[in-house]
Amino acid sequence: MMHRCTLCSPIGWRGGWRESSPWRRVNKWRRPGLSGDGAGSGVLSFSSLFMAGSEERRRAGSIGEPLPPSHEPPLAQGFPEEQPRLGPPHREHEEEDGEEEESERAEGVLDEDTAAEGLHTLGYSAPGTEYVYLHLSLPGRGLSDISILSGYTHLQKMELSSNKINDLSCISHMPYLLELNASKNQLTTFFNFKAPKNLREADFSYNQIPKMQDLSAYHSLTKLLLDFNEIEEIRGLEKCHSLTQLGLSHNKLTAIRGLQNLPIKILNLSFNQIEKVNGLKNLKKLQRVDLSNNKINSLQGLEEHDLLEFINLEENQVAELSELKWIEDLPLLRVLNLLKNPLQEEDCYWLSAIFMLLQVTELDLKKVSVEEKVAAVNNQDPPPEVVAAEDHIIHVLHNIQQPQRVLHRPCHTTRTAYFGEENRLDYYFISQKAFEEMVTAGNFLLTYTYSGHSYGLARDTVESIAREGLATCVHLEIEGVRSLKNTHFKPRYILLVPKDKKKYEEHLRRTGLFSRAEIEEAVARVDMYLQINQDFPGYFHAVINTDELDEAFTELSHLVKIYLGLEPPEFLDNIQGTKSRAGSRTQLLPEEEPSPGEVSDFLEPSPKNYPRDLQDVLNAAPGSVVRCWIPKSWEVF
């Protein structure tokens, strides 16, 4: 009695045995360590082995039914070496015959022995009726003909890289194939076979494929690699609704087309001849894109990809930092590579790029530190306090380099004079170049920019007036106030701001001095001043409502006289509240109960700093007082 083996593809367990079954070259294909020892025991067998003809099988009787599979698959290795090996009589003669046949085997043609060496990973077949080898790995074998694999119908993963294969038609007989690696072969086409309906991953890199095929039958395909080929156009992917990774690097593409509405997450189009980033608009799930080594000069087309995390644009032709505007709003962008692009030659490239892309953690293959992000913000869009501090530092440095002298003159500005203003009386109206020369000479105590014009307060102007025991009122914007707070001067700051913005806007229009843009800007900044007064208690020593200018001027004059000691502060009844002679328009301290009004709460900051500030106003020796007038508000120092 001997075992009988029923052949299946690529290898299967079958039950049943008979007294005699003719075998040919059994010893050549049997896997080492696999044998049977008893009636009904299972054996492993390969397809494409030759058995006796139909006449012998009829004489032997029926082959029997397969045994039901066990719950645990048998191990491919580890069978006792002492177990008898399966094989027919006259084994020695068959081995000699096999060696002779092997020597005559055509070069590059895959045979059963070589195929057996590449089989691994035992498991259930797709129908679940038998145990089979699921994977075949034959890389670098010099194979050119693999037609024998047509009988290996149960394969699910096949590795055939680094061979000389130019025909994959055998895959038409593998309905359960899930993964295929046919890279580094001699293929001139791909998918020229009946589609395995469940194929998920395919690698055809490093071949000689000139064009893409229609892949409408591959609905399950999730990964397709076609790198290092000769493809000139993307096509045939319209119905690949499961495709998440596509590789087409090192081809001959000149444009991005044929990718509409695909669920691609990883896209590699590097080393092509692409000039524009278009065709990606509908790839809403895109997470990583590699466009390095192309001819791209604009990043337009990468916007509105909210899931994009990685962009590689190394060695392209992006020349302007402004191109980063197309990707600055990508919320998940973390890695950006712009190496070997012309824009790297721009001044402050590193900090400018970081500032525009604060969400990035890696730029040009370098980690971006928190300190660099802070430096980028301070360099490109510094907070007001940083601007004021830098302005103060500049003027101090320039001033200490100049000889000390006193000159009497008004403030300087680069804007043109309004109607009724006179040069050297209201302002020194100078050019931008002259203004910059004065900055370099250290002549200014502070400078700031408003509505596109520069304003400067000369240090000597304030000091000369203070030396004569007079008060000087200078009108400034909040930018100038911030800078002045960094000096050694101790002025009193009085905010003059309207409550009625509509009335204020009408007043500005009636003057006929300001453009529409200037009026809109002035009105828009009213809320900003009110918010500063509320958020920073004590920032201003007093607040005066300017809805009625005559009354506001009376109140301001009275405060200046009190400061200079020219008028006693008899109107101050107590430290908790102060009312001017004109009524309740001036607020040095908060009222016990807020006065009614649309913005009264904003006009009245927290009282915690008022006792000290008011005492300063009452007790300070005569010195500098600065009045600030802007189209919508006054500030008095």
Automatic annotation (TrEMBL):
- Cite a GO CC annotation: acrosomal vesicle
Domain of life the protein comes from:
Eukaryota
SUPFAM superfamilies in alphabetical order: L domain-like (SSF52058), P-loop containing nucleoside triphosphate hydrolases (SSF52540)
Q: Which Pfam family, an example, fits this chain?
A: LRR_4
Which intervals hold domain Guanylate kinase-like?
412-561
Recorded hits in Gene3D superfamilies, A to Z, give:
P-loop containing nucleotide triphosphate hydrolases, Ribonuclease Inhibitor
Looking up PROSITE patterns in the UniProt record yields: GUANYLATE_KINASE_2, LRR
Disordered, as annotated region: 55-110, 582-607
Entry's SMART domains?
GuKc, LRR_SD22
Q: What does it do?
A: Involved in multiple aspects of sperm assembly including acrosome attachment, shaping of the sperm head and in the early aspects of axoneme development. Not essential for primary cilium biogenesis.
Quaternary data = Interacts (via guanylate kinase-like domain) with RIMBP3 (via coiled-coil region). Interacts (via guanylate kinase-like domain) with HOOK2. Interacts (via LRRCT domain) with KLC3. Interacts with HOOK1 and HOOK3.
- What's the name of the protein? Leucine-rich repeat and guanylate kinase domain-containing protein
